[in-house]
Amino acid sequence: MGLQHTKPSRVKQANILMLGLDSAGKSTLLYKFRYKDHFITMPTIGFNVDMIETSKDFTLTFWDVGGQEKMRKLWSNFLEDTDALLYVVDSSDKRRLEESRREFELILKNESIKNVPVVMLANKQDLPGALNAEEITLRFKMKKYCSDRNWYVQPCCALTGEGLAEALQRVTTFAKQYSRSKETFTTLKET
Length: 191
Ligand code: G3D
Ligand code: MG
What we know:
With about 190 residues, the chain is α/β, with parallel strands linked by helices. It has a single domain, classed as P-loop containing nucleotide triphosphate hydrolases (Rossmann fold, 3-Layer(aba) Sandwich). The chain has helices spanning about 25-35, 70, 75-80, 95-110, 135-140, 140-145, 165-190; strands at about 15-20, 40, 50-55, 60-65, 85-90, 120-125, 150-155. It has a seven-stranded mixed beta sheet, with helices on both faces.
């Protein structure tokens, strides 16, 4: 009998790369995620690595490699195994929005994260004058730069936790989709 049983593959773990300029709110976000879910902290090696079990059989690993100038050179080393990019923006810091946008553009040009989905966190929505999700979408030219991948702009406030559950949900969905598509591609190549 030529019956073949192929078990649907279950994605168990995904790597989330967290980027953004210094003081965008990355550390605060990771800290906040910690209270929402079961959290495992790993020893840090000059950057933060944290794991969240979002369900019994799924873990998100967050790599917060820091946004300082000297750390930015390291970003590309983390891109290879990334399943989703979580890009954090201080929506209230108009002075540095352009700098942040340029960094974002540079990252997306990297061949190793071609098609990797992006969740942009428009953080610090509590501050006066913060750009809303639509304005951040336009300012960061999301439609242009992310035309080849899934993307979403999520407004949030890391201090109150507003928007974070939605962000985690979105990042999980995107990362799972991406992992599956990667697996399919590998399988096709092998046969
Ligand atoms: P980073 O890890 O991206 O460098 P941090 O950024 O998480 O260290 O945050 C930088 C500063 O922004 C911190 O303030 C933090 O409390 C603040 N911050 C983070 N998210 C929000 C937010 O949603 N709203 C407001 N109002 N502030 C936020 P300090 O004063 O500790 O430097
Ligand atoms: Mg930090």
